[in-house]
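Team,

Forwarding the record for the chain on the shared tracking sheet. I've put the sequence and predicted structure together so nobody has to dig through attachments.
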Amino acid sequence: MEITVRRADTRLARLLSWFFVLPPIKKFTLDRLGTIVWDLCDGRRNVEEVIRKFGEVEHLERERSEPAVLQFLTLLSGRRLVSFMPARKAGEVSPHRSGPARQADKVSPLDGGPAR
């Protein structure tokens, strides 16, 4: 699977484009396992559910699926392809955050980020 990300049209990006060649899009190619995790990142599932479902699909014990999924989600987050939304209590507003995944966090592609 190939993920295409459009460059953000921000003031900083426009300023930097005067000094550097910034491609309008960037493409990432995912292998079969990356595609499974990517497809599970729908904004409805939390990290725990992504780990569990990945393990089911790949017939892996949790001890093997958890580190792989967490490492991959951290990589995607570092490239600003997904964000983690902390689990909310009733009535609580939840902003996007970056940083390492916690199992209660919901995971979703960033708004305006990758085109699927």
